[in-house]
């Protein structure tokens, strides 16, 4: 998914705040400690001088490996002296260390130019919050999935409540036990049966487990990928990379997009790329019968979905109409 700009900006702002607070806390601790232990100031000044010397040596053309090792050794010795003084005065040895919320990226959000998982999780959280708001579905969790809306019989005389109760248990278990080897799912059925609700509930739970989830309607997904091709300088234009790299991709409302060879090729590329990487994907589809997929999509797309995705069929009546009554 090309994460929407609001979610990206909010996640970036939160990371900046975390970084600022961690560094300000460390600064305040240093002021407190240096006042109580003057020797700490002298050692810190010496260590800063070593860093400056180390930087200067790096840009010299001559072989300065011995000098560099000496500076590194003296810097490490200074660190040891600081820890010893802290311990002797009743402070933890790491009291002056900057304690970032994410030690992998130091709250910058990036590792070697690639988004850190902490950043992706934040973006996902804000994306789902935004999705809840715009979709007017504030209570999309497992606890608010009401099975009482599913009553009656199917054309084959099966009890709809029992079918949906089983679907609920299967999908909740999927979210609770999700891992990199989880299978892909096709959740299909007529519109208004709670497919979006249950998918958002699954996304929330899987994010809570520490995995990254990209959630997007098929229309938004295709629009963002197409837009990226014309706005290559846009800092948010990482749609294709993101949806391939993310732990779980959830595509909502497959079948609601325009039918063009170009858009169909994008859908195939997304599904095929993640299948080749053995990454799980969940597709929500408003088509009620699997045969409808063959009428709508190229055989390559149909083949991958029908052969590699576990199918979960939703039945019943449009819940929105039931609520209106």
Describe what this molecule looks like in 3D.
α4 packs antiparallel against α6 and α9 runs parallel beside α11 (299-308). Helix content is 57%, strand content 10%. The mean pLDDT is 84. It is α/β, with parallel strands linked by helices and 325 residues long. The protein starts with a helix and ends with a helix. The strands form two sheets. Strands 4-5-6-3-7 form a five-stranded parallel sheet, sandwiched between helices. The protein has a two-stranded antiparallel sheet with strand order 1-2. It has twelve helices and seven strands. The protein has two domains: 5-108, no CATH class; 135-324, 3-Layer(aba) Sandwich (Rossmann fold). It is elongated and about 85 Å long.
Radius of gyration: 27 Å
Helix-strand pattern: HHHEEHHEHEHHEHEHHEH
Give the strand order of the largest sheet, numbering strands 1, 2, ... along the chain: 4-5-6-3-7
Q: State the distance separating the first and last CA atoms.
A: 36 Å
- Specify the oligomeric state: single chain
CATH superfamily of the largest domain: P-loop containing nucleotide triphosphate hydrolases
- Counting DSSP H or I runs of 4 or more residues, the number of helices is 12
The level-1 CATH class of the largest domain: Alpha Beta
Mean pLDDT: 84
Total of domains: 2
Strand residue percentage? 5-15%
Largest sheet: 5 strands, parallel
Low-pLDDT sequence parts: none
**Structure summary, number of beta strands:** 7
Q: Shape, please?
A: elongated
The secondary-structure class comes to: alpha/beta
CATH topology of the largest domain: Rossmann fold
CATH architectural label of the largest domain: 3-Layer(aba) Sandwich
Q: Helix amount, in percent?
A: 55-70%
